[in-house]
Amino acid sequence: METMLYSLLSNNEELNKLIGENRIFPIFATNMNGCSLEYEYRDLKSGVVNQSQFSINIIWSDYDFIIKVKNLLNQILINPIQDNFKILNGFKFNMALSGSSSPLYRPDLKIYQVNLNYLIKWMKL
After folding, report:
1. Residues with Cβ < 8 Å from 82, sequence gap 6 or more?
2. Which ranges of 1-125 would DSSP assign to H, the alpha helix?
3. What distances in angstroms separate CA 71 from CA 26, 64, 67, 94, one per listed residue?
4. How many CB atoms lie within 10 A of CB 87?
5. Contact in structure between 50 and 123 (CB atoms under 8 Å)
6. C-beta separation of 4 from 77 below 8 A
7. CB neighbours (10 Å) of residue 90?
8. How far apart are CA 10 and CA 58, in angstroms?
9. 111-125: per-residue pLDDT in tens?
10. Quick one: which of 12, 19, 52, 58 is 20 to 30 A from 71 by CA?
11. Burial 3-23, CB ≥16 within 10 A → b, else e
């Protein structure tokens, strides 16, 4: 599931146009020459229907730009009707935003960070 989510984001044309290609990093960003997305994936519950958490940190020096990225990520990842499941790459899944953090500002680096946490219910087909 983690690999499928990474592919979903890294192959999204609209996201690549907005932040550029190769700007999605596992756990921490190694290159701050552009807007960066750091992601973490955690399994929470397993069984017939699994539950996982997918967290994304959006990091960049332009807060308004971060808000554009945040809105686009929500469009890509969240199902508008919570009873509907998407089917993609051998997975049937449903995602919802389960929380986010207040924006952080690092004065030493002059960058902002916004965190998004998604809850995923999924099953392998």
Report:
1. 94, 96
2. 2-10, 13-19, 63-77
3. 21, 11, 6, 18
4. 9
5. yes
6. no
7. 9
8. 14
9. 999 999 999 999 988
10. 52
11. eebeebbeebeebeeebeeeb
Give the pLDDT band of residue 83 (cuts 50, 70, 90).
Answer: low
Mean pLDDT of 52-62: 96
Q: What average pLDDT score do residues 24-53 get?
A: 90
Point out which residues pair with 92 in neighbouring strands. 87, 123
pTM (global) more than 0.85:
yes
Residues 6+ apart with CB under 8 A from 115: 55, 56, 57, 58, 100, 101
Q: Which domains can be identified in the chain, with CATH numbers?
A: 2-124 (3.30.2000.20)
Cα separation of 23 and 31, whole Å? 8
